[in-house]
Amino acid sequence: MSRLSFRPRPLDIHKKLPIVKSARELEDDEPTLALRAAPPVLRHSQPEPAADGEVHPTSSKKNVQEIPTPQYDDVDTYERDYTRTFAQPTSYIRARGARAEIGEFVEYDLDNEDEDWLEDYNNERKNLNPEKLEVLLFKLEILDHKARERAGVITPTFIGPIPVILQLDSAMEALQYLSIRYAVFQAVYNYWKSKRERWQKPILRRLQPPPPVNDTNPYNVFRPREKAYRLHTRRMQRRENSVQSFDKLRLVRRNLEQAKALMSALIKREERKRETMECEVHLRRIQMKYKAFSKLDQVKMIMQIQMILPASNHMYDQLLFILDSLIISYQLFRQCV
């Protein structure tokens, strides 16, 4: 009994896949499968004539997919209610300012450095509150950002220090509605400018440009995530500067440092073993050398010391005491051995 075998063919990406929406479509496909499984007909064979009144069913029925169309109603007054009032402008569309720019909402909060400077400043004059300082620093950041927009020096990514373009007179003229004295505003402006020069970027977070895409520092957040598509083959290893790769390299570095510390401890242990062995060998040599040390030799040594050193020398008594101690220790050692 032969089975149907299908030859594997490559998939065609342009061929639409059939969608089965009811079981009736599967029933209609069964005659087609039966025709495929039927034995082949000889080339010269003639079809048998049909009987009287018998009609052969035609297999020209096509499985037409019916897509349901939602019902809708025409609204006669739609064109009158929603007129086409949009006219294409000649320039780019410009968005309105955010509520922080056109309202009284302040996005900036004082940090420890700002609070320390405000405390030192109020110790001398006491004419500036924290809320007013937050408003001034926020307005100065917004005005400087708009000045850089007009000058066309805004970069899409952080590639270098961002200088301060806003001048003192321009800022004072733009913020004159705040009713602040010139001396106070000048002190705040100088502090803000010095802080900007230290930071080398805006102090307001949303005005800081994102780091570049090729930045390998994993601690720089808000990096653009656009990646160029590259075709990867089996022989090509995928190497990406990601957080997972950084963690793996850090783990490898920690393992290497631990291995280095272990090897250094092993070297110290072997050195101590060698020193211990050398001391033991030296001790054995001394024991072999002074094994036949007799009492006569001790007396001769004492007489030689007396002849070398005068009796009036205070070191003579000390040497005798040391020599007696050595002799006693040697005798005890001989008894133990």
UniProtKB/TrEMBL annotation:
Region listing for Disordered, in residue ranges: 23-78
What PANTHER family does its record include? Answer: ENHANCER OF POLYCOMB
Compartment annotation = Nucleus
Example GO BP? regulation of transcription by RNA polymerase II
Domain Enhancer of polycomb-like N-terminal residues, every copy: 53-139
GO CC terms in record: NuA4 histone acetyltransferase complex; nucleus
Q: Which residues form a coiled coil?
A: none
Record-stated family:
Belongs to the enhancer of polycomb family.
Query: In which residue ranges is the amino acid composition biased (Polar residues)?
Result: 57-68
* Keywords, ordered alphabetically: Nucleus, Transcription, Transcription regulation
Q: What is this protein called?
A: Enhancer of polycomb-like protein
